[in-house]
Specification:
CATH class: Alpha Beta
Number of helices: 12
CATH superfamily: Aldolase class I
Bound molecules: S-adenosylmethionine, iron/sulfur cluster
Largest sheet: 12 strands, mixed
Strand content: 15-25%
Number of domains: 1
Strand order of the largest sheet: 7-8-9-6-5-4-3-2-1-10-11-12
Distance between the termini: 27 Å
Length: about 350
């Protein structure tokens, strides 16, 4: 066991505690990123979760408190697009009542210009904004909603002004799609106080047409960025940090790379995921979850809920990215927009 995990009240079969809880607050989105919710699948006929199947704020808050008791230290609100959930700042305020949790949000940034101040006032600590390219044509095509870059940049600025920084900016890189635009992203966010992180294109779900040859390995990408803007490696902030961190040698701040495909980090993975309809998933690539909503709505006590969550976590032995192979490629995995990225 890692020494950092000595105090954890709950460990899985591989000795990993539950430290991070990612809560998907909706399975809906105003983008149709081709690597996540391709419109051929998530078109007008797609049936999203009906409202009564989605966890209420009270249910989410109750579960979050139990996760905190079991060792969680950080909550990330995600989706789908979490800012589409009505009254999101109210949920943030309710979660803020729970001591000992850092509260973060991952968003496509489209509604941040309107929401950042309210989210910050409600107690949100930080945001991560996804932005795959600064090239407007490339970005419009990637989000497949013809949504312009400028409005996302406004959202990032609004978040920083509201005190939700340093903003992390996540860019998924696909070879032949946006990898020629990575320098502009690096240039734009160097010295801005925001931290750009490149993410390897992952085979989440089964609908995004993932191909290994579209993954730009971090080793290659970091070398390319280093040639343009020299980099020096940084130590991880904490055990289990997923990004490989570098600083610009000229002092223009930090940049990260998330190596989910080429250098998996399952051994340190402390993340639990709660889907919008209250299923607990112990891996991004899970094929099934534990129905906590059913337990909640059967009138269970906190003790009973705690027992269900602890049982699922204790049984956890996921390490999908370490064993990714032909054999796992055909499994029916859960879609990212449902499980929460
Ligand atoms: N809608 C919000 C957003 O885009 O930030 C939150 C949910 S989204 C599923 C969370 C993150 O997952 C985003 O940064 C997105 O780029 C990333 N993502 C989605 N599909 C991915 C894939 N196939 N490979 C790598 N990252 C992916
Ligand atoms: Fe929506 Fe985020 Fe998925 Fe893009 S990555 S389709 S913004 S949920
Ligand atoms: Fe964690 Fe599963 Fe990703 Fe491995 S594959 S890092 S266990 S979510």
């Amino acid at each position: 066991m890692h020494p950092d995990y000595d105090d954890a009240p709950l460990l899985d079969r591989l000795g990993r505690p539950v430290r991070d809880l990612r809560i998907s607050v909706t399975d809906r989105c105003n983008f149709r990123c081709r690597y996540c919710m391709p419109r051929e699948v998530f078109g007008p006929d797609f049936v999203f979760l009906p409202r009564d199947q989605v966890l209420t704020f009270e249910e989410i808050t109750r579960l979050a408190r139990i996760f905190r008791d079991l060792g969680a230290r950080k909550i990330r609100l995600t989706g789908g697009e979490p800012t589409l959930r009505a009254e999101l700042p109210k949920l943030v305020a309710m979660l803020k009542e729970i001591d000992g949790l850092e509260l973060t949000l991952t968003t496509n940034g489209t509604l941040l210009a309107h929401l950042a101040e309210r989210l910050a006032a409600a107690g949100l600590d930080r945001v991560t904004v996804s932005l795959d390219s600064l090239d407007d044509a490339v970005f419009r095509e990637m989000n497949d909603m013809d949504f312009p870059v400028a409005l996302v940049l406004e959202g990032i600025d609004a978040a920083a002004r509201a005190g939700l920084g340093p903003v992390k900016v996540n860019a998924v890189v696909r070879r032949g799609v946006n990898d020629h635009t990575v320098y502009d992203l690096a240039r734009r966010f160097r010295g801005s106080g925001h931290v750009l992180r490149f993410i390897e294109f992952m085979d989440v779900g089964t609908t995004n047409g993932w191909r290994l040859d579209e993954v730009v390995p971090t080793s290659e990408l970091a070398r390319r960025i280093h040639e343009a803007f020299p980099l020096e490696p940084l130590e991880p902030h904490y055990t289990g940090e997923v990004a490989q961190r570098y600083r610009y040698a000229d002092g223009a701040g930090e940049i990260g790379f998330i190596t989910s495909v080429t250098q998996p980090f399952c051994a340190m993975c402390t993340r639990a995921r709660l889907s919008a309809d209250g299923h607990l998933y112990t891996c991004l690539f899970a094929t099934q979850g534990t129905d906590l909503r059913g337990v909640l709505r059967s009138g269970a006590s906190d003790g009973e809920l705690r027992t269900s969550i602890a049982a699922a976590w204790r049984a956890r032995e996921d390490r999908y990215s370490e064993i990714r192979s032909e054999g796992t490629a055909s499994l029916r995995r859960i879609e990212m927009s449902y499980i929460g990225g």
